[in-house]
Amino acid sequence: MALLKLNSLYTTFLVIFTTSFTTLPLSSSSSEVELLLGKIKPTLQGKTENLLLSSWNTTVPLCQWQGLKWVFSNNTPLTCTDLSSPQWANLSLYEDPSVHLYSIQLPSAGLAGTLPRELGELSTLRSLYLSVNSLFGNIPLELGYSSSLSEVDFGNNLLNGSLPTSIWNLCDRLISLRLHGNFLTGSLPEPALPNATCKNLQFLDFGHNAFSGNIPEFITRFHGLKELDFGSNMLSGSVPIGIAELSLEKLNLSHNNFSGVLPNFGGSSKFGVEVFEGNSPGLCGPPLRGCNGKSGLSSGAIAGIVICLMTGVVVLASLLIGYMQGKRRKNGDEEDEEELEEGEEDVETGDGEGKLVLFQGGEHLTLEDVLNATGQVTEKTSYGTVYKAKLADGGTIALRLLREGSCKDRSSCLPMIRQLGRVRHENLIPLRAFYQGKRGEKLLIYDYLPNRSLYDLLHESRAGKPVLNWARRHKIALGIARGLAYLHTGLETPITHGNVRSRNVLVDEFFVARLTEFGLDKIMIPAVADDLVALAKLDGCKAPELQKMKKCNSRTDVYAFGILLLEILLGKKPGKNGRSNDYVDLPSVVKVAVLEETTMEVFDVEVLKGIRSPMEDGLVQALKLAMGCCAPVASIRPTMDEVVKQLEENRPRNRSALYSPAETRSEIGTPF
Ligand SMILES: *[C@@H]1O[C@H](CO)[C@@H](O)[C@H](O)[C@H]1NC(C)=O
Ligand SMILES: *[C@@H]1O[C@H](CO)[C@@H](O)[C@H](O)[C@H]1NC(C)=O
Ligand SMILES: *[C@@H]1O[C@H](CO)[C@@H](O)[C@H](O)[C@H]1NC(C)=O
Ligand SMILES: *[C@@H]1O[C@H](CO)[C@@H](O)[C@H](O)[C@H]1NC(C)=O
Ligand SMILES: *[C@@H]1O[C@H](CO)[C@@H](O)[C@H](O)[C@H]1NC(C)=O
Ligand SMILES: *[C@@H]1O[C@H](CO)[C@@H](O)[C@H](O)[C@H]1NC(C)=O
Fold first, then answer.
1. What architecture is the 452-659 domain classified under in CATH?
2. Where is the composition biased (Acidic residues) (predicted)?
């Protein structure tokens, strides 16, 4: 985070420096030096002598005063690079009336005092960066008397009290005002001029304070705003419609007590749920649940489960009817029986009617068990439906009922199913049994894991979900990579997963990832399998060369894994998002960021938490690896074995977060 901020500060700093120097008021540097030494230094440093500020001393050349930048009246900066320059020795510079202070940059400087009101007297001061210190007390109202201040960053200090109204005196010059992470209270003050537009203001960050009251209307007149952060305050009321009319690139209204209908932010994917999460349950409208209780996300989901629960029961009952009818007809299928007996690990039961083929770990299942289970739909896809089913003995299994025509006949299906039934790996969900009814119904029976899908963990906002820091995401990514590598190279006959995506990854409370749905493409008729390709395209994880499912191979899996890794790193959904038609191509997002030199900003904020060096923590390497997997030319993509190796070599240094008591995103709700 600190890195990000410094980076963007640096760019805005350059912009000001090169473009917006206007006339400087005439004032001698000697009075500025007096203010710095007499008032500002002692107040900023507090009770203890500060190492950086000790350089502010008339016995030290002006150029060596830490954290200060000077400029001559003719706008040329005082360059302090040339050691032979007389400026280094010329002490009379302090009295030079053409030298002025224009910037104080002391982020993370160990300042432990208060903000001196004399800061407002530095008439030429344009930027004031004092973030990540221990400054406490109020923001002095005199700050607003400053005649040049345009960039202010007091982020991550201990400031309290309310924001003085005078701050808006700076309105016309102000480019950024960052107060993130303090203890500021009260409501946001109204500017004295009713029509203030603060036309240069681009960054307004009031996040993580204790501001209360409403979002004032005047903010909606700040048309130049690009980033607006009110996250984690105690603001309430409705979100003004005008906020949606600003051309914001970043917005954070999460964790307040906003209510009412959200204004329409255009394409529903412009801002995700995370921007609005943690507010009053009364806050509604896209991307949150719909208003008036209709077609809402959460209420809809509940209704869905209820309806599906009923369908689940119906479907299982109809299977049972099929089974009974078969029984009455009593048509043995000799040819299939012979084939079944070839299996080594599997056992068949079922009177030669419906067939239940059992694999290792599924030996306890009986046909009656499976058919009498009461089911509840957990997932519906184009090729089948998954039920969570309770067995009579109290156990729970996951049943996947394959869509009709999924595979032509038993003889073509069984060899592949048997192969799938033999796969056992920590990161792959085991297939325990397979049932085929007389009418062609096919059920795949897996262990039921009460875990969340990675998709859900990454994109659904719900109280009690664990924070996904980099250590945890790395573990998840490595688990997925190992599972895929095993399918590709760890088996006698390699298996292509064919459907790698975050919805097909379950993550347990120790962040162990388990892949499901592998190899299913092989037991589907081409038309159904090709639906998967279409779906993968829509979800942005289809390798460019993949046109037909029967052409899928380990390299197309690697591509899909690359997209999945980007999804993990960026926290963004790939492909078509929401109801809008926006299509998110994650590799392009990264390419653009790299070109614009904002690479660090592509990472999900949660990923960067606690990361000191993205290089040493393997974050940058993971991004490169993901991009390599997404190479448009299949032959240059790494193999899954190489991917596993690289992820193992570039681990996050601090992995203690993996083992700390599950840190969750909110106090309420059940811990994960
Ligand atoms: C400046 O430095 C000298 C010696 O380096 C020290 O004696 C003096 O107290 C310092 N003055 C201030 C104002 O810090
Ligand atoms: C010191 O700086 C002043 C003003 O910039 C200049 O007039 C004077 O000649 C300089 N003295 C030396 C010794 O460089
Ligand atoms: C601000 O904090 C200081 C101590 O750091 C305390 O004395 C003061 O009362 C606080 N002011 C407000 C308005 O909370
Ligand atoms: C401020 O805007 C209102 C309408 O929005 C207008 O009537 C008024 O004259 C404006 N005042 C100034 C000082 O521009
Ligand atoms: C919004 O702000 C809160 C508090 O500062 C932070 O925890 C959260 O990650 C931010 N969300 C987004 C989407 O930036
Ligand atoms: C949030 O706002 C609602 C009114 O919309 C109010 O009843 C509730 O007390 C507020 N909650 C908090 C924690 O301020």
1. Orthogonal Bundle (1.10)
2. 333-351
